[in-house]
Write a structure and sequence with these properties.
about 130 residues, alpha+beta, Nucleotidyltransferase, domain 5, two-stranded parallel ribbon, 4 strands
Length: about 130
């Protein structure tokens, strides 16, 4: 297995529409802006409905200048909100999907091989 950037690994961005419970998973390398912005943009463009709002958790991958710039430039019609700090239930829809879909498919271990991302995204349907 080829390992890329020791200490880095694959993350799954989980996006769930609260009204329809439609969920998409996107595997990305680390929590960098390119991967996260690409996952969000892919979700918005592929959704069979108009995405008008995105509520994220308070992780640095969602609360940074890159995401703010990406939204203002490419997704200006999508309103961004975020969960309240230390309020686990604010993101209950996504947290449930992390357990049922992400960990059920890939387990609890870290995937340190970036070459797995295309395969994971095929499995995820992304």
């Amino acid at each position: 297995m080829r390992r890329i950037d020791a200490g880095s690994f694959v993350w799954t961005v989980t996006m769930t529409d609260v009204a329809t419970h439609r969920t998409e998973l996107w595997a990305v390398w680390n929590k960098g802006a390119a991967g996260v912005c690409g996952a969000v943009a892919g979700y918005v463009s592929d959704a069979p409905f108009e995405v008008t709002m995105l509520n994220s958790d308070n992780g640095g991958e969602f609360i940074n200048a890159h995401i703010k710039r990406h939204f203002s430039q490419y997704l200006p019609a999508v309103v961004r909100t975020r969960s309240r700090s230390y309020r686990k239930n604010d993101n209950a829809h996504v947290e449930q999907k992390n357990s049922v879909q992400v960990r059920a498919r890939y387990g609890h271990g870290r995937i340190g091989d970036g070459a797995m991302i295309p395969l994971m995204n095929r499995i995820n349907g992304a």
